[in-house]
Structure formats: C-alpha cells, structure tokens
Design a protein that fits this description.
Layout: E1 24-26, E2 29-31, E3 38-43, E4 48-54, H1 58-74, H2 82-98, H3 100-111, H4 115-136, E5 144-145, E6 151-159, E7 162-166, H5 172-186, E8 189-193, H6 200-212, E9 219-221, H7 226-235, E10 241-245, H8 248-260, E11 265-269, E12 274-278, H9 284-296, E13 306-312, H10 316-329, H11 348-364, E14 367-370, E15 374-375, E16 381-382, E17 385-388, H12 395-398, E18 405-411, H13 414-421, E19 429-433, H14 437-446, E20 451-454, E21 473-474, H15 479-484, E22 487-495
Parallel strand pairs: 7-8, 7-10, 8-9, 10-11, 12-13, 12-19, 13-18, 17-18, 19-20
Antiparallel strand pairs: 1-2, 3-4, 5-6, 6-22, 11-21, 14-17, 15-16
Helix pairs in contact: 1-7, 2-4, 2-5, 2-6, 3-4, 4-5, 9-10
Length: 502
C-alpha cells in the first residue's frame, strides 16, 4: 500500500498469527457461551475474519459474576497476605514478558496497532504496571485516628468486592491492565468484558493468569457486545464496583444502569478533545514533531489525542507548512511492517466515522491542507489529515473523532488561548510547548484537564494518576489513586477505659 505521500512500504512478509483462545473464561476454565453463539473478530488490515469468538451475554455474565462472588466471599485471594498476592502478580508479569511477541501480534491483527510499538511499549508496559501494583499489594494501610473522646479509632482498607471492568478497543492490553492490576492487588475478584472488536489478547491474559497461580474465579473474561454483555455487567446486582473506559454516550448508560440496580460505585474514563498549545518561543521543529505525535499516535484512536493544535500567531504559518510536510511523509500501511508509521482504523464503522468527520470539516468551511482521503484498496486506512481555518464551534474542533485528523488554530495571547483550550465539554489532557517557565506554570494551573504535559506528550507512568475532568469522566487509573478506588474505608471504634492519655 502507498504511504500518505505516495511512498511504498517496501517488500516484507507479515507473520502468520495463531489464535489459541476463543472461548469465554469463567471460573478458571475456557467455556462456550450458554447460547452456543459466536461472533467474528476481523483483521482491520484486510477486513477479513481472524477467528470466531464465543459470544457472552447475560447468562454468561451471571455465571462469571457467580464465580467471582464465590472466589471473593469464600476463596483464598482476599484472605492471602498482600505479599502472597504480590508474588502471584509478579509471576503473571513474568509470563507476559515471556510472550511479548505473541501478545503484540494479537493486538496488531485485532486492533491494527503498530507491531513494533506493541512489542516495545504496550506489552512490556502492561507487565511493568502489574509489577507496580504487585509491589503495592502489601502496603495497603489504614490509619490510627486521634479521637476527641475516650475512644480508640482506626480505619481498615478492605477490597471492594466483585469488580466489573468494561475495556475499550483502542488499547486492548494497556486498558486491561489499567483496570485489572490494581483491582487484583487490592484483593478483589473481577469480571472483564473486553471490546467486541478486540477480544483476543484479553483471553490470552486469562490463560496466563491461571498459569501464574491466580485462584479460579478471581479473573473472568466474557467477550460479547455492549448492549448485551456490557449492559449485564453494569446492571448486575452482585457487582460491587464498575470501571468503564469508552465513549461519553455509553458512559451515561453505564451510570444509569449502576444507579438503577444496586447503586454500585462507578469510575469512568471517557472522551477527550485535548489541546496542544504552542507558544512563539517554542522550538518549531520540536513542536511540530510533538503535535504530530499527539495527533496521529495509534492512528488517532486514543482518548488523549492532541487534535486541537493552537499555535501562536508569530510562528503559525511556519508551523502549518512544517506540520503538513511531516504528515505527508508519514507511511500508512500494514502495521507489521517496521517502515510503517500508521496502521488501519480498528474497523469499518470507525473508518467510516472518521471519513464522515473529514467531510463535515470541509462543509463547515475549514481548509484541508493535506490528507483527507482513504488509502489502499482493502482494509481501513486513512491518510493523516490537517485542517486549518478551524473555528472553535466547528464539529471537528468540538467532537472526539478518534482518527488521524488535526485541527490547527491560531491565537494571540495567553489569556485568549486559555479560554479557547477550556472551551470544550471534555477535560482529559493538554500539551503546552514553551521555553518560559512562567507561561508553563500559568497554563498548567489554568487548563481544566486531568493531565498537563509540558514539552512532552503521552507522558504516562505507573506512578502518575490518569483521569479526566468534566465530561471526560471521574476516577483515576494508575498511581496509588488507581488502587484506592478498589478499596473501601471502614472505621472501627472501641471505648477506652482508664487510659493514661488520649
């Protein structure tokens, strides 16, 4: 396939990917769906079927929750010491590291992700995050309280119970471990509903978890569709906590289901329309490279994609020219090819959605500088796209497109761009490019978003909490904040008699 600028990918042969696990994983066993139904998971490189996956629905979710409930209420997992749980999680991480190549292949063939990135970052990063929480498992402490009366008070941190995790398709491995790692470290039992577009790696992780010694029922994986399997998890009366990452629209449904069932605790990581703000004093080559990275990483299918690029007027014209040059050089093609910069959108629906937004941008009056077209004669490939003359109220500046579409806008003053950056219903992340520490400090405190990256982007780390403001959701992943949401705080008080001090 041609690249965005007409460059060929060069000759190479994509590896053959073996799919070993296609059934539901419930109570420590791979099983068929109760209904016997299956669904197709497709390769976005070609649109062809990779495998037929057992299709879980309410009956299967009921079985998975029952297994998790039994594992939590009567099994060894929450009753182990944190040290013992941590040892099993470290073994789980060891097994992930032994299968990096195979796991990266599954995410490439299922989600269209660059194989080299998965092998170098996504899969090793999952093992790293798992080890972070394995190390935290024996460091979960309550507090001794200084009561104002003759009472001894202290708090206990207890696992919340059975957790339902609904995982998105854009980062199948990363998001699986964002959720599962801290919940397991806390002593919870979990039911994971992976995205129907990308179930393959989640089932492989279930296999590795059992091999690592995780007790049966502690980790259950039920592939299926959102309106059936996902809805059943959200509404289940025996699920104590729900963690969802996905669209804002579905996030509303998840909250409604939780409220109408057992008022289970909910954490949401939803959409984003993150700004990248480039000031006149920035190194223009670095700024262009950073903006390109922010907008096009993972073909734009990332909740924190920096797709609203605000550039100060002094360097705006030069920035537009260089950004277009960089985008045109990007090679779009088979994500197994090491020369390729951008793979296909995850499926036909997402591909058509992105192309629709490109048409909307043209109709709204934005200027298409480069890209804007599908490429290749099969699969779901779209050129890196740049619009200029974008107004803040245009759909391409307000809506999360989840594709390789950059909206470039000009600004004059810091006060003006703060207002523009905050003119969104989202608040997930923002990037600031400047050499001036005063500008960086003012901007980082003025933008209403959960992560502010100064002269960098996608600066994720296991110790750095991640989550949004406004309609980007609430609750944090990673860091110790990510562990806290799977814990309950219990206060215990006893009377003190004849105490020499309070």
């Amino acid at each position: 396939m041609a690249g965005a600028n007409g460059n060929g990918e060069g000759s190479f042969e994509a590896p053959r990917v073996e799919v070993r696990f296609t059934k539901l994983f419930i109570g420590g066993q791979f099983v068929d769906a109760v209904s016997g139904k299956t669904f197709e998971t497709r390769d976005p490189r070609t649109g062809e079927v990779i495998a037929n996956i057992s299709e879980g629905d309410k009956a299967d979710v009921d079985l998975a929750v029952k297994a998790a409930r039994e594992a939590f209420d009567n099994g060894p997992w929450p009753r182990m010491s944190g040290y013992e749980r941590g040892r099993i999680l470290h073994k789980f991480a060891d097994l992930i590291e032994e299968h990096v190549e195979e796991l990266a292949m599954l995410d490439t063939v299922d989600a269209g992700k660059l194989f080299a990135v998965g092998r170098a970052h996504d899969i090793p990063g999952a093992a790293h995050l798992l080890r972070y929480y394995a190390g935290a498992a024996d460091k979960i402490h309550g507090e001794t309280l200084k009561m104002a009366q003759r009472m001894h008070g202290y708090t206990l941190k207890e696992p919340v119970g059975v957790v339902g995790h609904i995982v998105p398709w854009n980062y199948p491995t990363t998001m699986f471990f964002f959720k599962v790692s801290p919940a397991l470290a806390a002593g919870c039992a979990v039911v994971v509903k992976p995205a129907e577009q990308t179930p393959l790696s989640a089932l492989f992780y279930a296999h590795l978890a059992k091999k690592a010694g995780l007790p049966d029922g502690v980790l259950n994986v039920v592939p299926g569709f959102g309106p059936t399997a996902g809805a059943a998890v959200a509404a289940h009366m025996d699920v104590d906590k729900l963690s969802f990452t996905g669209s804002t629209e579905v996030g509303r449904l998840v909250m409604k289901a939780a409220a109408e069932s057992n008022l289970k605790s909910v954490s949401l990581e939803l959409g984003g329309k993150s700004p990248v703000i480039v000031f006149d004093d920035a190194d223009i080559d670095m700024a262009v490279s950073l903006a390109n990275f922010a907008a096009y990483t993972n073909k734009g299918e990332i909740c924190v994609a920096g797709t609203r690029i605000y550039v100060q007027e002094g360097i705006y014209d030069a920035f537009v020219k260089k950004a277009a040059e960089v985008a045109r050089k990007s090679v779009v093609g088979d994500p197994f090819n090491p020369r390729v910069n951008q793979g296909p959108q995850v499926d036909k629906d997402q591909y058509e959605k992105v192309l629709k937004y490109i048409d909307i941008g043209k109709r709204e009056g934005a200027t298409l500088v480069t890209g804007g077209k599908a490429c290749g004669d099969k699969g779901y490939y779209i050129e890196p796209t740049i619009f200029t003359d974008v107004k803040d109220d245009m759909a391409i500046a307000q809506d999360e497109i989840f594709g390789p579409v950059m909206a470039l806008m000009k600004f004059k003053t810091m006060e003006e761009v703060i207002q523009k950056a905050n003119n969104t219903r989202y608040g997930l992340a923002a990037g600031i490019v400047t050499k001036n520490i005063d500008i960086a400090n003012t901007m980082s405190r003025s933008i209403r978003a959960g992560s502010i990256w100064i002269n960098c982007y996608f600066a994720f780390d296991p110790d750095a909490p991640f989550g949004g403001y406004k309609m980007s959701g609430f609750g944090k992943d990673m860091g110790m904040d990510g562990l806290e949401k799977y814990l309950q705080t219990k206060t215990v008080v006893t009377p003190l008699h004849n105490t020499p001090w309070l």
